[in-house]
Amino acid sequence: MISQYNIHIKGLVQGVGFRPFVYRLATDMHLHGYVDNRNDGVFVMIQATPSQKDDFVKGLTTHKPDVAEIETVTVLEKPVSKPLPDFFIAPSREVDNHITRISPDIAVCDECLQDLISQPHRIRYPFINCTHCGPRFSIINALPYDRPGTTMSVFRMCPECEAEYTDVRDRRFHAQPIACNHCGPHYHLFMKNGYETVDYEEILSRMAAVLRQGGVVALKGLGGFNLICNAENEKAICRLREIKKRYKKPFAVMFPDVPTLSHYLNILPLEKEIVSSWRRPIVLLEEKQKIGTGINDGYKTVGAMLPYLPVHYHLFASSELKALVMTSGNRGDNPILTDNDAALSDLLREVDLFVEHNRDISNRVDDSIVQVVGEQPRIIRRSRGFTPEPLSLKFDTEGILALGAERVSMFALGKDKEIILSQYIGDLKNRETYLFYREALDKFCLLFRFTPRYLVCDAHPDYFSTQLALQLAQRFQIPLLRVQHHHAHAAAVMAEYGLTEDVIAVCLDGTGYGDDGCIWGGEIFRCNQSEYRRIAHLPYVPLPGGDAAAKSPWRMAVSYLKSIYGSKADYPETFIERLGESHIRQIEMLIEKGVNTPLTSSTGRLFDAVASLLGICDENTYQAEAAALLEQIAENGISRCYPINSDNPLDLRSLFDGILKDYRLSVPVSEIASVFHNTLSAMLLNIIIQKVKTERLTTVVLSGGVFQNKRLTNLLIKQLANRKISYYLSSRIPCNDGAIAVGQLYIAALKKRG
Ligand code: ZN
Ligand code: ZN
Ligand code: FE
User: Fold this and answer.
1) Could you say which ligand is closest to the alpha carbon of residue 508?
2) Which ligand has an atom closest to residue 184 CA?
3) 655 near 665, Cβ under 8 Å?
4) Residues contacting 584, CB < 8 A, separation 6+
């Protein structure tokens, strides 16, 4: 008995070769019907027997393309209205506001790499792509995902490409960015002396020569420009640092393949899987052999990635180099450059070669960063290869716009039952970054046909995101909810894992606006999705000079010693030598008088103080520099702890007693750093055990940027696991302030539901 089955598939099913896959599945099974791309998913109609229908639905999930992700399949049975003679692919059309997913950008696939060698019209064609790979989010202007809605719309397909595009059996059937040597985008090289060329082979050999000679190349990539140099050439790295005005922060390195990468770095199977996945993020890995001086001074880890564009493969082959620094093309703290003219005027005079291409970037994306902690991938920076993949919830989020935080800003939209998180944006205090934030917000609203009906932002009155929220609330006359920063941190983890019950939340970060006007950042909450109670926190200390203190770890060293020991503060001699007695005295005075000296319970500032006392870092030149260096210098294999006050586990006195004593006894700084991590982890474990008992709860949520510290996190989660305390730490969204928008949205969704 043949019926008609209307099958609706939701998930990541657009722009990933899903329709041709459905077509092949249906035709292989000799089914009649059609498949249709709609902006609310993929719709399939088949005329089949019940058992054929079952096999077909099963086949959808078992044989789907790698990148595709099926969220729901709904099947509706109907009588056959009109028998169809075959199976066909219907043209896309718009349906309603319930848009479906946009695929993130996908690294060039192996088959395309093969075609680069063998397919006549694509021999060494650097913009090759297929239904399973290539640019997606970065080139999309409008939904549904079809060529006219992308920045490829200006390129007219040649007859050969068009034939492939329309042939359902072809690997490039409906590959929207399809292109070849005859019809697609091309690279364009510029030199300072006015020389230009569009000859790809010449561009490649010139780039290779410059890189081999220690020069710097600006190359337009997928989501923006990159600056590239030989990672094994110290002088080249110095120059790159000058150009970028980035003097210390480590650079990410691209290796040609896994074997070369493994020569320099230790890599576990899971890390190998992540680094070579279609998302191709940067993965933080432990150094086995020094790559080059100046890449990651003070670090034992390197941000490593593999080629994801054809030009990367060609560049390694032509230059025969083993490791390339591949960093975002921008200067200072500005966003990565995407526009050809802006990049040309900004970078041409700085670099040795400037190479752009004529495929516009619609959505800027940086390289994403992942590290493995507790045998799970943990994303640190979420952008290329991940954005705009949503997070699914069990309840409605429609119309909620969460504006996020400020330092690591990202916003989020609520659509249907999903949270769509923006790409990584950066620090809104930078004007250019703020403009990027506004532009991305406009784009997301347009792309996802989103109109804000409910706003949520941080409680901090001065964040630019808060100010914007206030303006929008006024302009659209819609409600605005303000959420405490650390509650949002905790809620972000709860959102990712669908937690709704009360939890103990350990929220450790640099800065968050507290309810008492103090600067929080070492918080233990009892909370759920709607309310929280602060049940413990790191002791308050003065933040001498306010924001300035976050840039100057040494000020925090003075603050802690003064708070703990008062007038008996006994600074290490080396500390006094470095900073000068009068400077120290000035800060002490500031604290005594309480001028511009708010109180803080920030964990970030505690790391700062310790790093400075140990002579590791007195001034932060980038966010969390001192804390990162303190983690990196810590030695393995040391298990001792400083004593812990069991009545008051977060008391810091014995910690500082121990550090100062060890330092005076000339215990190596690497050992003290290690003992500090052990002690902090033990303090946290103690307070968690205490609170789990008194609050009668069993679930612990860990969040905040401090959990990017792999050493501390590993220590703590191992001990929690040993004690059978279940813990949650974000994996798919960052634990830093990139998560704030997600947490805000999760909290608002419940409030809105009433
Ligand atoms: Zn491909
Ligand atoms: Zn073509
Ligand atoms: Fe935070």
Assistant:
1) 3
2) 2
3) no
4) 558, 571, 575, 576
Q: What is the pTM of this model?
A: 0.95
CA angle, 643 then 647 then 653, to 5°: 45
Beta strand ranges found along 518-638 (DSSP E) = 519-527, 532-537, 541-542, 599-600
Q: How far, in Å, is the centroid of ligand 1 from the Cα of 280?
A: 14
Which of the ligands is closest to the CA of residue 131?
1
Q: Of 420, 444, 446, 440, which Cα lies nearest the Cα of 428?
A: 440
Place of tokens 């099958």: 7
Torsion region of 285: left, alpha or beta (phi above 0 gives left; psi -120 to 50 gives alpha):
beta
Ligand 3 geometric centre to CA of 7 (Å):
43
What one-letter code names the amino acid at 559? S
Residue 153 makes CB contacts below 8 A (sequence gap 6+) with 147
CA 357 – ligand 1 centroid, Å: 20
The ligand with the least distance to the CA atom of 736 is 3
pLDDT digits (tens, 9 = 90+) for 537-563: 999 999 999 988 999 999 999 999 999
* Amino acid in the structure at residue 289: Q
Angle of helix 625-633 relative to helix 669-695, nearest 10 degrees, comes to 110
- Helices and strands in the chain: count of H runs, count of E runs: 23, 30
Q: Which ligand is nearest to the CA of 484?
A: 3
Cα 451 to ligand 3 centre (Å) = 27
Query: Which distant-in-sequence residues (6+ apart) come within 8 Å of 636 by Cβ?
Result: 674
Nearest ligand, CA 178: 2
Distance between Cα 30 and ligand 1 center (Å): 27
Q: Which ligand is nearest to the CA of 106?
A: 1
Distance 114 CA to ligand 1 centre (A): 9
Q: What is the pLDDT of residues 365-385, one digit of tens each?
A: 999 999 999 999 999 999 999
Span from the CA of 393 to the centroid of ligand 1 (angstroms) = 32
Length of the chain: 754
Distance CA 133, CA 129 (A): 6
Asked whether the CA dihedral 377, 383, 389, 392 is positive or negative, the reply is: positive
Distance of CA 171 from the midpoint of ligand 1 (Å): 8
Q: How confident is the model at residue 754 (pLDDT cuts 50, 70, 90)?
A: low
State the sign of the Cα–Cα–Cα–Cα dihedral 627, 628, 633, 635: positive
Distance 181 CA to ligand 2 centre (A): 6
Ligand 2 centre from 354 Cα, in Å?
26
Asked if residues 550 and 605 have their Cβ atoms less than 8 Å apart, the reply is yes
Structure token digits, residue 501:
């019950």
**Beta bridge partners of residue 357, listed in sequence order:** 187
Centre of ligand 3 to C-alpha 536, Å, is 17
Q: Rounded to the nearest whole angstrom, what is the distance from the C-alpha of residue 106 to the centroid of ligand 1?
A: 9
State how far the Cα of 749 lies from the Cα of 130, in Å rounded to an integer. 38
- The rounded Å distance from CA 194 to ligand 2 centre is 30
Return the number of other C-beta atoms located less than 10 Å from residue 701's C-beta.
25
Q: Report which bound ligand comes closest to the CA of 113.
A: 1
Q: Which amino acid is at 333?
A: D
Write the pLDDT tens digit of every residue in 155-191.
999 999 999 999 988 999 889 999 999 999 999 999 9
Please confirm whether the linkage preceding 79 is cis (ω < 30° from 0).
no
Q: 541 burial class (0-12, 13-18, 19+ CB within 10 angstroms)?
A: buried
